[in-house]
Design brief:
The chain is largely without helices or strands. It contains 2 helices and no strands. This is GH16 domain-containing protein.
């Protein structure tokens, strides 16, 4: 019997997911792919992005990753 793992993730400072030319709001992405220390650069730019998370509203719940449910089906293998 084989096992399968489902990972649900919220990550920052990733590479390859956000085009270098894209912006999210008035500021460009605070790191460049393959520059090294992407997460550090993301955190250093928190004065730009952290206010958009509205942590002072609703006890920060609106900024949280929330998963209501996950539904998984077993698929039949191809004959």
């Amino acid at each position: 019997m084989s096992s399968t793992t489902l990972s649900l993730n919220l990550a920052v400072g990733g590479v390859g997911y956000f085009d270098e030319k894209n912006t999210n709001g008035p500021y460009p992405k605070p790191w460049t792919d393959n520059a090294g220390s992407e997460a550090d650069r993301f955190w250093a730019a928190r004065a730009q992005w952290l206010p958009t998370w509205n942590l002072d509203q609703n006890n920060g719940e609106d900024a949280a990753l929330k998963i209501n449910y996950v539904k998984v089906w077993k698929m039949k293998p191809d004959p």
